[in-house]
From TrEMBL:
This is SUF system NifU family Fe-S cluster assembly protein. Residues 26-121 form the NIF system FeS cluster assembly NifU N-terminal domain.
Length: 140
């Protein structure tokens, strides 16, 4: 079986598990008008983690899959570790050297690099978590 097919199946499965029915006042709300992706995040603590993070995501399979996989990856990570994850994801999307081990299953989105219009879909949850932690947008 082709590795890209495996990655596609992983992304589709994770997209079906993405949170989307939360009703809360968001601290960060981002959209991707090109695809219709919409993500909201809130945290009641200065350093967001899976336990205190509220997320609602609606959009394409790539955005929803990236959101769910990001949430799984940031579990038990500090704000600095999450920022490093975001930076590496951004590097992967821009054809720069990145830490594949740090990204783990998120390398499934490597194929998105060949679809430039879909990069925004994959990066939206990462931009949102970065903005939630740092109060501003990632400069990549």
């Amino acid at each position: 079986m082709d590795l890209s097919n495996i990655y596609q199946r992983i992304i589709m499965q994770k997209a079906s598990e993405c949170p989307n029915n939360n009703q809360f006042d968001s601290d960060v709300h981002l959209t991707n008008p090109t695809c219709g992706d919409d993500i909201s995040m809130a945290s009641d603590e200065k350093e967001p983690n899976v336990e205190n993070l509220q997320v609602a995501c609606d959009g394409c399979i790539i955005c929803k899959g990236a959101t769910k996989m990001m949430l799984e990856t940031i579990q038990d990570k500090s704000a600095d570790q999450i920022n490093e994850l975001v930076l590496n994801m951004s590097k992967m999307m821009t054809h720069e050297d990145y830490d594949e081990e740090l990204l783990g299953d998120l390398v499934a989105f490597q194929s998105v690099v060949h679809l430039p219009i879909r990069i925004k879909c994959a990066m939206l949850p990462f931009k949102a978590i970065y903005q939630l932690i740092n109060g501003d947008d990632i400069n990549r």
